[in-house]
User: Fold these one by one.
Assistant:
Number 1:
Amino acid sequence: MSVTIHHPTTIPEALALLTDDSIRPLAGGASRGAMMNANLVTPAALVSLRQVEALRGIAVAGTDGGLRIGAMTRHCETAGSAKLSGTLAVVRAAAQKIANPVVRNMGTMGGSISLADPGADYPTALVAAGAVIEITSAAGTRRVPVRAFFLDWYTTALEAGELVTAIHLPPARAGIGLYHKLARVAGDFATVAVALSATAAGEVSIAVGGCGPAPIASDAANAVLSGRLDDAAAAGRAGAIFDLLHQVDNRNAQSEFYLTDIIEIARKRGLHCAVVEGDEKEMLGVNSRAQLAQAESAFQARRRTELMESGVTLIAPETIYFSADTIIQPDAVIGPYVVFGPGVTVGTGAEIRAFCHLEGAEVGAREGPERV
């Protein structure tokens, strides 16, 4: 099937060609081309925006020093822009994590956010940065705060006949901007992503992506996290983040030990947390089944050592397996081939005999099959 491609050179010319939903805009083509190849979309015609110079570039706009990023600015340009510094470095960091060099040389910010894939890198970073989306139609231009732009799965505030023409960012402030994601393979869409923008004075803006139809963010959470970001402060304010978990959707990682489980276990144990930045190669990541098995083996070995050092007797320790929330008090005795499922607490002096599989139990006496 052949598709007519129009090549306007101005924004009004492009808008005049978008007469109905069967005619679609074409930005970098990284996503649109893949969707057409898979027969997910079959437009009657395409309006290429590549020759519209007004949609390109990163420049200071207005008297406050804020930035305007044209919708047709490619990922590689964003990834290398020195203008995205301080608190705005979160956007540059997200661009650097997109897919691979080929996609970064093709794809554009406007095209990416218009598709609104929940696992894409820009939405989460732009929410943390406090971006505003510029939308233009034949009737004029309007601006939409980024949190109101992403509405649902692959759904935005764009209406018929409208284009994203620019992304506006507040002035860069002294501070940091970080973006990290967990993906199944390097360069893939995020299973979970976290974007952080923080000023030197301690004002914090944080967003979580890949966990639902749109990035998760909360002014209340940002307010309680602001001020200082050391270990004690973060631990004491963890409840503000925990209260957002009802917004988390696990469909990107079904049947996996996932974000909600990790946060809940940490909170129940009163664990401390800290904000750190390091070389990605030095950070533990689980992006394959083999790495997951290695991480699980390391956890089990560490847990066995901790329990034995605390006064728990493990008979044939290498045959005993624990869940992350297993609690075993000192002087307990655990027989061989015992598996602890979720929600098990073993009291002081209790004995768990061989070949038990326990879940959701509080054990204070002898448990297990009779000896034969």
Number 2:
Amino acid sequence: MTSSDPNGSDGPTPKNWVSLYIQEAENLAARRLPLETIPRSARPVIRKWIDSNITEEELALVSIYLDWEINWIGQILDTWTGNDTEILRAVDALLYAVSRRPRNGLTEITRVFNDPSPSVAHKMSDILQAIPSVWQINRNQKGLERKLDSANSSALVLATSVAEKSTVSHLTTAWSALLEMVPRPSDAVSEAIKAVEVELHTIVAPEDKRFSLTKARKQIVEKPHKWTVGLRLQDEPHERVDTLSSMLRVLTEFQSDRHGKKKLRRPSLEEARGAVSLATALVIMIHNGVIQLAANSEIEVEYKSSE
């Protein structure tokens, strides 16, 4: 097989020859889904972002934090000696360093080097969107976080659209703790539990100032006749209460390091994901009336010391 070169001469086709049209089509197809990696074409852009927006002092601080030589970040991008994880770790740390800048005068985050253009974090956000990457700037612009998949994103949007303001804060913080480059499973579970506690507080024991998820579960289990539980797995009311109780127990048992328990066992990342997903579902279910005070029942509040 032969091919014509631009000068009109024919010659043998290299074995690794691929039509530019086919190659471009494959590239476009690959870009339909967010990438885990940093494509080669994006590395000069990231290097320019560093050169244009990051000070030598910030590079030095990040190099100390990552235990790198100060010029190693540049070497990763220029000589292709590093891997994508190292680049992402560097960007994550640099964003945090930038967020620590004083917010007055020309050193304010939105006026780096006397430049009134969008913030440093916003510029990196544009780069990540253009790749496109599975990583994005987190909500406080202090680092990177993994994008939430469509299913969990839809559930979170629905939950936060109906929940109390404090519940929204706890729930979004829980997901953020899971999605950071260095996840914080224990914090994620703690925030997930707090989100459900806020939602159940006004239903189960609004006057109890030391309300907890454990107390909520105890009241629901001990007095099932007081509650209307909309989980029709069985005809018997107590079966429905047991189902809800089991869901609440999963949350409280996910994290044994909460409330200063003696037997310290921090949750794994997989456990934390399960807890946060369950908490998100419970917030939606509570607002859909999965648990309500039964008609003609009065709320009884038991004031007890910490359990």
